[in-house]
């Protein structure tokens, strides 16, 4: 269980989060949505231990602020929005950077499996810099997955905190990555993911947090949040929510263009 | 000239004086050649490792203590000690003695590394452009201060300064090794412990923290290591360029950027290259001697350009 209690955070002199209280259960996928500048990324950075905050964040009962970097690393992996690399490492070397323990044999096995999971089998010897943006994003995801490969260790869940992991990916790989997260959550791991694509969020998430101006405007099931009135209020744009007939998934369309044209 | 066989004899006797070796040869080998060789090994290793650590810290393959003003800062410290060392209070002189020049160079290198890092890092991100520009500014400032000191120096100090500024292993002696050697050794021994941290930092500071590294501690140890390695090396040998940038580059091409291998190999290759450069410097126009900084620049600069031309794709970030 990840719990946030009256979480406040600032970037420089600008207050970004104004008191967010929420909790995410392991075994479920929580999608964080909200308009640009609403504080989604700052929220993710706060639970990743990157920015100073007021309030309390607890990861499975332990105060986040009291955990050492290496203790945190054993319990959660983080995929930042823009991942960079300074030197010409190969793909396998980048994934290896996420590994903190285990024997050498276990490691190369794990690297291979993490790369296979993001559809990059056969890329291990390639230079990271020579890959496309979408491939680089998948390498970074494989690195984060390798860090917390087992979703549950000694009865305690591990967590994935991901900021826009599929923004650079084509639609097939977007779905592939979402399947990876689904399996991780179904096996008992926790997933908190910042998403821009409301339809993707509606499809993949068990719970949705809608952030607006640093506050939690709405939280609950996709049907409730995506279909609810708070969504249009947060984005400041009329949004039509509907349900697909077959799988009963919620989907949305912005309404402004037709309204203007009509 | 020492007889070639004497070196072998000396090695076998491990410092024990053999009556068969003429006293003059013994003196040349023990008092001139051996300290010079040891200094070359230590300085070459320190410059290469200092460059590799700096590049890892700044996440930029073009960072070099010499290029970004750290060498100039260390140089200013050394010049301060040479020119104004006589004015120092008696207790300072007594306390530091022979150590005054290396200690001052170390402090100068450390200060300029700190300033450079502070200026070019904002919200955890180090800006390459800012780093290079700040390095130029720092280098100019240190150069100006050095100029003032040169102006007020007396003849004997001027000779020391000139000799020292051109870069040479010619001044190597046991007291200097005793003073600067431990500083360089400490930096060289600390460097391998930075390998995992620098590997992680290549992902950026945030991601380095995510994978479990104590980022601030890694950065502080790295800064201290660069300052110690560069400061002490500059103190004993003056300004020797290109070792710090060419050696890590060559090794990244040969064995990849993994710092677990890079740092150790940089020490070995740096030592080897500087010994070779010294061999050229003192034999090519014998009995006169070229400043070694000229040799490393004449060899290093074209090699560096060649690397850039061949592997432009991997240098671009």
In whole angstroms, the N-to-C terminal distance of chain A is 48 Å
Q: pLDDT under 50 segments of chain A (min length 5)?
A: none
Most extensive interface, chain pair and sizes: A-B, 33 and 28 residues
Q: Describe the main β-sheet of chain A briefly.
A: 6 strands, mixed
The strand line-up of the biggest sheet of chain B is: 1-2
Give start-end ranges of low-pLDDT stretches of chain B.
1-8
Largest sheet of chain B: 2 strands, antiparallel
What characteristic shape of chain A results from the CA principal axes?
globular
Calculate the mean pLDDT score of chain A and round it. 89
Q: Could you give the order of strands across the largest sheet of chain A?
A: 6-9-10-3-11-12
Provide the descriptors you would attach to this structure in a database record.
heterodimer, A: about 260 residues, alpha/beta, six-stranded mixed β-sheet, four-stranded antiparallel β-sheet, globular, B: about 325 residues, mainly alpha, two-stranded antiparallel ribbon, 15 helices, disordered N terminus
Describe this structure in words.
The complex is a heterodimer of chains A (262) and B (317). Helix content of chain A is 35%, strand content 29%. Chain A has helices spanning 40-47, 69-75, 91-96, 104-117, 133-147, 171-186, 198-204, 222-227, 230-235, 256-261; strands at 2-11, 14-24, 29-33, 53-59, 62-63, 76-79, 152-153, 156-157, 159-163, 190-194, 207-212, 215-220, 239-243, 250-254. Chain A is globular and about 50 Å long. The N and C termini of chain A lie far apart (48 Å). In chain B, strand 1 and strand 2 form a beta hairpin. Chain B is built from 15 helices and two strands. With 317 residues, chain B is mainly α. Chain B has helices at residues 4-13, 23-58, 70-84, 90-96, 100-120, 128-152, 155-166, 174-190, 195-201, 205-210, 215-237, 243-255, 259-283, 292-310, 312-315; strands at 121-122, 125-126. The A-B interface holds A 12, 45, 48-50, 68-74, 77-78, 80, 83-90, 93-94, 97-98, 100, 127, 129-130, 144, 147 and B 56, 59-61, 123, 199-204, 206-207, 209-215, 252, 256-258, 313-314, 316-317.
């Amino acid at each position: 269980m990840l719990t946030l209690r009256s979480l406040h955070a600032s970037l420089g002199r600008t207050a970004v989060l104004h008191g967010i209280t929420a909790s995410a259960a392991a075994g479920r996928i929580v999608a964080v949505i909200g308009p640009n500048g609403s504080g989604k990324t700052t929220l993710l950075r706060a639970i990743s231990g990157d920015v100073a905050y007021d309030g309390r964040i607890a990861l499975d009962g332990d105060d986040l602020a009291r955990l050492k970097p290496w203790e945190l690393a054993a319990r959660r992996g983080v995929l930042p929005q823009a991942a960079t690399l300074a030197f010409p490492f190969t793909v396998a070397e980048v994934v290896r950077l996420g590994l903190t323990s285990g024997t050498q044999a276990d490691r190369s096995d794990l690297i291979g499996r993490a790369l296979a999971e993001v559809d990059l089998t056969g890329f291990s010897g390639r230079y990271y810099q020579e890959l496309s943006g979408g491939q680089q994003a998948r390498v970074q995801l494989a690195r984060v997955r390798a860090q917390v490969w087992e979703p549950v260790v000694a009865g305690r869940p591990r967590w994935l905190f991901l900021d826009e992991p599929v923004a650079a990916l084509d639609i097939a790989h977007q779905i592939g990555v979402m399947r990876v997260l689904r399996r991780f959550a179904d096996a008992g791991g926790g997933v908190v993911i910042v998403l821009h694509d409301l339809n993707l969020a509606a499809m993949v998430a068990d719970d949705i947090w809608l952030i607006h101006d640093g506050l939690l405007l709405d939280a609950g099931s996709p049907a409730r949040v995506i279909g609810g009135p708070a969504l249009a209020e947060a984005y400041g744009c009329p949004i039509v929510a509907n349900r697909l007939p077959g799988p009963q998934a919620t989907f949305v369309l912005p309404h402004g263009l037709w309204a203007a044209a009509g | 000239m020492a007889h070639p066989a004497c070196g072998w004899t000396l090695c076998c006797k491990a410092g024990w004086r053999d009556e068969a070796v003429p006293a003059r040869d013994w003196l040349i080998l023990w008092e001139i050649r051996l300290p010079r060789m040891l200094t070359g090994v230590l300085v070459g290793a320190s410059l290469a490792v200092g460059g590799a650590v700096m590049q890892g810290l700044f996440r930029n393959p073009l960072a070099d203590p010499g290029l970004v003003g750290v060498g100039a800062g260390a140089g200013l410290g050394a010049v301060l000690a040479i020119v104004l060392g006589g004015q120092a209070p008696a207790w300072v002189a007594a306390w530091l003695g022979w150590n005054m020049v290396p200690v001052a160079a170390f402090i100068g290198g450390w200060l300029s590394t700190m300033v450079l890092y502070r200026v070019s890092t904002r919200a955890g991100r180090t800006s390459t452009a800012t780093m290079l520009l700040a390095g130029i500014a720092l280098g100019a400032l240190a150069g100006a201060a050095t100029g003032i000191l040169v102006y007020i120096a007396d003849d004997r100090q001027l000779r020391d300064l000139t000799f020292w500024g051109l870069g040479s292993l010619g001044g190597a002696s046991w007291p200097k090794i005793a003073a600067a050697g431990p500083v360089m050794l400490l930096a060289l021994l600390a460097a391998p412990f930075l390998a995992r941290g620098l590997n992680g930092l290549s992902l950026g500071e945030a991601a380095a923290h995510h994978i479990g590294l104590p980022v601030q501690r890694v950065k502080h140890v790295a800064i201290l290591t660069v300052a110690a390695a560069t400061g002490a090396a500059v103190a004993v040998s003056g300004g020797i360029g290109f070792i710090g940038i060419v050696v890590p580059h060559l090794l990244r091409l040969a064995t990849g950027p993994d710092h677990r291998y890079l740092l150790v190999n940089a020490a070995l290759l740096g030592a080897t290259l500087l010994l070779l450069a010294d061999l050229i410097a003192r034999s090519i126009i014998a009995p006169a001697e070229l400043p070694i900084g000229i040799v490393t620049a004449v060899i290093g600069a074209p090699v560096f350009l060649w690397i850039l031309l061949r592997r432009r794709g991997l240098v671009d970030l």
